[in-house]
Amino acid sequence: MEKPSCVPYLTACLATLALILVTLRLRRRRKLNLPPGPKPWPIIGNLNFIGPLPHQSIHALSQKYGPIMLLKFGSFPVIVASSAEMARALLKTNDAIFTDQPKTAAGKYTTYNYSDITRSSYGPYWRQARKMCLMELFSAKRLESFEYIRKEERKVFLQRLYESCGTPIVLKDHLLNLNLNVISRMVFGKKYTEGTGEKEIVTPKEFMEMLDELFLLNGVLDIGDSIPWLGFLDLQGHIKRMKMLAKKLDRFLEHVLDEHNARRQGVKDYVAEDMVDVLLQLSEDPNLEVKLERHGVKAFSQDIIAAGTDSSSVTVEWAVSELLKRPEILAKAAAELDRVIGRERWVEEEDMVNLP
């Protein structure tokens, strides 16, 4: 009886060794040149560095690791750009690469499962949404048609500031009201921040509370987004709040769409009065690449209200804050207004090009 040959075993061992060496070589060759950052812990990554005010925690880390750094939030790598140069590289030079938003609980529960403009995945739906914004919702002609709304609400805003002279005011609240009134009239055709005496679907207080909750929940750092296998536990209670908010918002938006459909029904060649009208007309367009469903109309409407309110008021609030801290620049701005506008009339939108 012949002894079994060891050649096949030796060949298999050599082949396995060769495969391991090739894999290691390829892995070394594919090693990425990653930005600097703190060493992550198992499971939690760098979440131990993030305090109750994440933007301040990240700023402190950027002072140590530079204008671009790599963090790990649980299982996910996060690139942080904290200079104008790095922001330009990510948002302008390489914008197509960074178009997609991460899939978060807030996107799932508060934007109709990523059906809005900002949370939808890059692809046909997102490109169509962008085209709708550029060509229909925010075209120069459309925005010009709403100028009377902005003018009326600015006068109300300035009147209220004038009436508050001599007493401390919270400018942020006035700015938020101004922006919310302007954008809600442009989107919904009326404002919900003031009682009309009629029975409304939401009171002004409820409307503001819904928006405040929307802003908050879309900015929280939820543990389930970073460590998915802990998501079902809802350790911070965010998911429960998101689901409750989604029900309230949907009830309100359903009412808005029903009102608009009733107004359009039976009217031949109906001319859109606000952005919800425009979206409803687009949802009936058979030539759309991707059909805009009813939940998409609600998601887009909610998106415009949220995006057009908080960010604008915060920007103006910070600008005024910086001016108050620099009297010499405030005096320069006032002198420019006196020279270009004078003191006999209000500043109008067409004056902006002459106010560098």
From TrEMBL:
Superkingdom of the organism of origin: Eukaryota
Q: Which Pfam families match?
A: p450 (PF00067)
Q: Which cofactor does it need?
A: heme
Q: Where are the transmembrane segments?
A: 6-24
Q: Which UniProt keywords apply?
A: Heme, Iron, Membrane, Metal-binding, Monooxygenase, Oxidoreductase, Transmembrane, Transmembrane helix
Presence of the UniProt keyword Iron in the record: yes
Annotated family: Belongs to the cytochrome P450 family.
Official protein name in the record? Uncharacterized protein
User: Organism, per UniProt?
Assistant: Hibiscus sabdariffa
